[in-house]
Design a protein that fits this description.
Number of helices: 22
Structural class: mainly alpha
Largest sheet: none
Order of helices and strands: HHHHHHHHHHHHHHHHHHHHHH
Radius of gyration: 21 Å
Shape: globular
Oligomer: single chain
Distance between the termini: 38 Å
Helix content: over 70%
Number of strands: 0
Strand content: under 5%
Length: 412
């Protein structure tokens, strides 16, 4: 068995493990890269570890640290409470506001997972008080968080843009963000109105404008956090500031002025996700060196033609993403195959294929087997039949593999 086959089998096993166990696949990927590279390939350890994405690690660490501080000091929560007040008691508008709020918060930096964790409990509690079906609320708040996931400031956006830059597809950050946001908005609002959202506009929610003053009052620590985040976004957009280093600097400012619990924020950072992404990236880098990536690309090319590749690749990435990590496993495994895939197919638009991977993999993440869906489901109150909501979300997530494939085939 040659080294290309062995390295590809290592990737396949890592993906399967990520689907069916709680083991951090990044740790497994690092172990596989070491064993395959050093003991099967005769490579030096430093040559294997050269695939570790130092820049990506620093960027993810800086951004997640800053927004973990913003979450711990209550800034994001107070902004969310203020946003709900905009509904002025209209029940039908509440899920729509949560979609917009999820999109906005995820876009400025926390990303989809942190936003779902922040908004999920508040959204489900509000849904219970206002008589909104949990399934409808999860469709809106979950897709809202997912819609902002490919922002250039969000962790997943940083990962995807880095992967695309490595294969020569730089400069498409806002295209990635916009197409993903459009796809999630389309399915969210279609589902909301299809499954009963219109009826909710007939009712009023008398508690929506009666939040306790302390729940929405912005203190000094909240204002300074807002200023720091705004300055970071402006610096990245207009002055070319490195988002990771800028976020580290912003985190230092918040710690120095006493606006955030720096020590606790470091503990609460999503180290598991960061390790997962970096570990899988090391294994993918090894596949590039051993020829395993070419073999993987050849297998993918057998599934489609230049005319059907966008729909097929969206379906495949979506199906795997139902059970596995989108940003940590699926996209790091598939995006590097794009140049070779086009070469073997004899044609194709690399941006269209990359977009199909991004959209197809993200649309399914409202499934209760994915993190965003699970976070929202965990917040469902006892007044709802949780098993029924689980089944509906699972059906929704699985159906998105087909819906995503159709959207990508038609539009991309």
């Amino acid at each position: 068995m040659n080294l290309a086959v062995i390295s590809l089998l290592g990737l396949v096993v890592a993906i399967l493990v990520s689907c069916f166990t709680e083991l951090n696949v990044g740790i497994l990927a690092l172990a596989f890269a070491w064993i395959i590279g050093v003991y099967f390939g005769g490579m030096r350890l430093d040559a294997v570890m050269a695939g570790f994405p130092v820049s990506l690690f620093l960027t993810l660490s800086g951004v997640t640290l800053l927004f973990t501080q913003a979450q711990l000091n209550g800034t994001l929560d107070r902004i969310a409470h203020r946003a709900v007040r905009l509904c002025r008691g209209n029940v039908g508008l509440i899920p729509i506001i949560f979609f917009v709020l999820g999109l906005a918060l995820a876009s400025v930096g926390p990303g989809n997972i942190s936003t779902a964790a922040l908004l999920g409990p508040m959204a489900m509690a509000t849904a219970a008080r206002a008589g909104i079906p949990a399934f409808l609320m999860i469709i809106m708040v979950g897709n809202g968080a997912q819609a902002g996931s490919l922002s250039p400031f969000a962790p997943t956006g940083i990962i995807v843009n880095g992967l695309m830059t490595k294969i020569g597809l730089s400069g498409h950050e806002w295209h990635n963000y916009g197409t993903n946001a459009f796809a999630h908005a389309f399915v969210a609002f279609s589902g909301y109105f299809l499954f009963g959202g219109l009826k909710l506009f007939r009712f009023a929610y008398t508690d929506a404008t009666q939040e306790a003053p302390e729940a929405v009052r912005l203190e000094f620590k909240n204002w300074i956090t807002i200023v720091v985040i705004t300055a970071l976004v402006a610096g990245v957009l207009f002055f070319g500031v490195n988002v990771g280093m800028g976020a580290f600097f912003g985190a230092v400012i918040l710690a120095v002025v006493g606006a955030a619990d720096h020590k606790e924020a470091v503990k609460r950072m999503p180290w598991s996700v960061i390790l997962m992404v970096c570990g899988v990236t090391v294994l993918i880098a090894l596949l590039e060196k051993t020829g395993g990536l070419d073999l993987f690309t050849a297998l993918l090319a057998r599934l489609a033609t230049p005319g059907t590749i966008t729909g097929v690749i969206a379906f495949v990435t979506g199906l795997i993403s139902v059970y596995s990590s989108t940003s940590g496993v699926v996209l790091p495994a598939f995006i590097p195959t794009i140049p070779g895939l086009i070469e073997r197919l004899g044609g194709g638009d690399p941006i269209a294929i990359a977009t199909s991977m991004n959209v197809g993999a993200h649309l399914v993440d409202i499934s209760p087997l994915s993190t965003t869906g699970a976070l929202c489901l965990a917040a469902v109150g006892s007044q709802e039949n949780v098993r029924s909501v689980f089944n509906k979300l699972l059906a929704w997530g699985l159906s998105m593999t087909v819906v995503g494939a159709i959207i990508c085939y038609v539009f991309f």
